[in-house]
């Protein structure tokens, strides 16, 4: 029996109960046990959180110096590093992602906080020389205001870490709505924000299902919304936000092509292909779920992949030796198995996996065996839809042009991978692929400094890097007339 923790909402620097009276369970997808209960926020509490964030923005945070904002962010990074292991353990308990990954993600979020902490006192404007020398002009960068952050269940803190540091550095305050399937670490994160000494109201958390997200988006009072989740959720949010004219950043799904050319280092490429799809149980938006392999090396790559996939150690996500954990929740588990069945019916050749793993210690967990389909054609559903699970579609190709055409033949455009030793090809193909990110001879490598985001139905806007910072800043132009001359009131001044 685990001790069950009951979490309230975090509004204006304090944990407060929900007046809705509704609570829902946080369930460990490995053991099936409930380990926490979460409050379902009512619309009134969502509004209170937005009001607290607004008040703090106007009265405190926008007036806090960059030096002080940076200092607080570094302190938060210290605390997250201090607690990276227990926070990782908790996230793993909540969503089944292996602890090797969740702990590393906590440290990466601390790194991202430090990157953006460095921006806080360097948000410079510019002086703009005009045609009229008797006018002086400058443009400043100002914080946008209150930001609504809505995240998915696969990596709650890592997704928050893609958004929050830039928002805080810019001088914005936030209201976060984590996924109903994985809320606890975001609430624990609130305790670290408080311990770091941030003013009350900078960081607020409202928990609940899509109704809570909708209340946040539709209630108004936000200056921007940053969303990570499904295309269905993204569309609903963009439409609702549009009615309030609230701008949005959308980080949605992907069906990323990972392309192995016959001149590649096949050993490294095979490991990269594995990392692309079986890391995080494939429950990542950047999963390299379509593996395109050039004919001359097709059989070799396939047999290497199958051999390694069959040795992947499934097990308790809290065990450091485990390589692949569970699906994060029951609906996701069922969805993955349904896609596997559809691939079979469509005639894809099953090389390994293809079913749930229920033996021995895995019995209670939502495990799906690492699954590889060969001879997939790009028009099959398994190659077109985002599965968000450990299911790889291997697609053969003959020429570079064909690889590019197949790679781009998708409604998504988040990430792509290229494996080649040919320098010219690296540049040709990375230029031709319509994705927001391209990895060459690596896959699923991340950095605080680099822009993250997609094109096409993978969304719009960018996170991390300088581009991530700009998302939360508004440019203000100030034009000053220095002359004593009278103007013509009926003609525009140029
Ligand atoms: P989801 O869209 O169902 O839910 C995401 C969040 O939005 C949750 O907090 C949910 O409660 C909320 N929500 C859902 N509908 C809403 C609505 N109408 N109004 C307001 N809020 C709403 O997505 P999910 O199943 O939690 O996450 C999986 C998806 O996330 C996958 O498609 C995956 O590709 C995507 N994802 C993208 C990235 C990225 O950075 N591009 C990263 C991770 C996951």
Your description of this structure?
The chain is α/β, with parallel strands linked by helices. It has two domains: 5-252 and 454-477, Aldehyde Dehydrogenase, Chain A, domain 1; 257-440, 3-Layer(aba) Sandwich (Aldehyde Dehydrogenase, Chain A, domain 2). 38% of the residues lie in helices and 20% in strands. It is built from 15 helices and 21 strands. The chain has helices spanning 43-59, 66-82, 84-95, 99-117, 156-170, 184-196, 210-218, 231-243, 266-278, 295-309, 330-346, 381-384, 400-408, 423-432, 465-470; strands at 5-7, 9-11, 14-16, 23-27, 34-39, 126-127, 135-143, 146-150, 173-177, 203-205, 224-228, 248-251, 257-260, 290-294, 349-352, 371-374, 391-397, 415-419, 437-440, 459-460, 473-481. Helix 9 (266-278) links the parallel strand 13 (257-260) and strand 14 (290-294). Helix 2 crosses helix 6 (184-196). The longest helix is centred in the N-terminal third of the chain and has 19 residues, at 99-117. Bound molecules: nicotinamide-adenine-dinucleotide.
């Amino acid at each position: 029996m685990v001790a069950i923790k009951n979490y309230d909402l975090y509004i204006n620097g304090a944990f407060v109960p929900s007046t809705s009276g509704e609570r829902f369970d946080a369930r460990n997808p490995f053991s099936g046990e409930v380990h926490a209960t979460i409050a379902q926020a009512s619309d009134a509490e969502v509004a209170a959180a937005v009001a607290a964030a607004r008040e703090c923005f106007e009265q405190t945070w926008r007036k806090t110096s960059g030096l002080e904002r940076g200092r607080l962010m570094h302190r938060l990074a210290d605390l997250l590093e201090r607690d990276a292991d227990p926070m990782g353990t908790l996230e793993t308990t909540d969503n089944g992602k292996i602890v090797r990954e969740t702990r590393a993600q906590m440290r990466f979020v601390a790194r991202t906080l430090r990157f953006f902490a460095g921006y806080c006192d360097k948000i410079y404007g510019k002086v703009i020389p005009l045609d009229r020398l008797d006018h002086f002009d400058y443009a400043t960068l100002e914080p946008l205001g209150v930001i609504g952050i809505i995240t998915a269940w696969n990596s709650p803190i890592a997704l928050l870490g893609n958004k929050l540091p830039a928002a805080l550095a810019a001088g914005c305050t936030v209201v976060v709505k984590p996924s109903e399937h994985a809320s606890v670490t975001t609430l624990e994160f609130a305790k670290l924000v408080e311990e770091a000494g941030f003013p009350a109201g900078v960081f607020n958390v409202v928990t609940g299902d899509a109704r809570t997200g909708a209340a946040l988006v539709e209630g108004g009072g936000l200056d921007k919304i940053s969303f990570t989740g499904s295309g269905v959720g993204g569309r609903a949010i963009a439409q609702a936000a549009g009615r309030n004219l609230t701008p949005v950043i959308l980080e949605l799904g992907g069906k990323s092509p990972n392309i192995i050319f016959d001149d590649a280092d096949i050993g490294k490429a095979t490991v990269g292909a594995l990392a692309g799809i079986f890391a995080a149980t494939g429950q990542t938006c950047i999963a390299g779920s379509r593996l395109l392999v050039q004919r001359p090396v097709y059989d070799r790559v396939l047999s290497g992949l199958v051999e390694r996939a069959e040795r992947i150690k499934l097990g308790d996500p809290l065990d450091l030796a485990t390589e692949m954990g569970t699906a994060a929740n029951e609906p996701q588990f069922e969805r993955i198995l349904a896609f596997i069945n559809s691939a079979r019916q469509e005639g894809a050749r099953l090389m390994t996996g293809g079913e749930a793993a229920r033996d021995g210690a895995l019995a209670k967990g939502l495990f799906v065996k690492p699954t590889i389909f060969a001879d997939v054609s790009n028009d099959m559903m398994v190659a077109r839809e985002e599965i968000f699970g450990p299911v790889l579609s291997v697609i053969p190709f003959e020429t570079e042009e064909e690889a590019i055409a197949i790679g781009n033949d998708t409604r998504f455009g988040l990430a792509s991978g290229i494996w080649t030793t040919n320098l010219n090809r690296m540049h040709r193909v990375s230029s031709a692929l319509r994705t927001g990110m391209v990895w060459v001879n690596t896959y699923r490598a991340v950095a605080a400094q680099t822009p993250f985001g997609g094109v096409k139905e993978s969304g719009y806007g960018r996170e991390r890097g300088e581009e991530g910072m700009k998302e939360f800043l508004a440019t203000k132009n100030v034009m000053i007339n220095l002359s004593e001359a009278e103007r013509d009131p009926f003609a525009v001044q140029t």
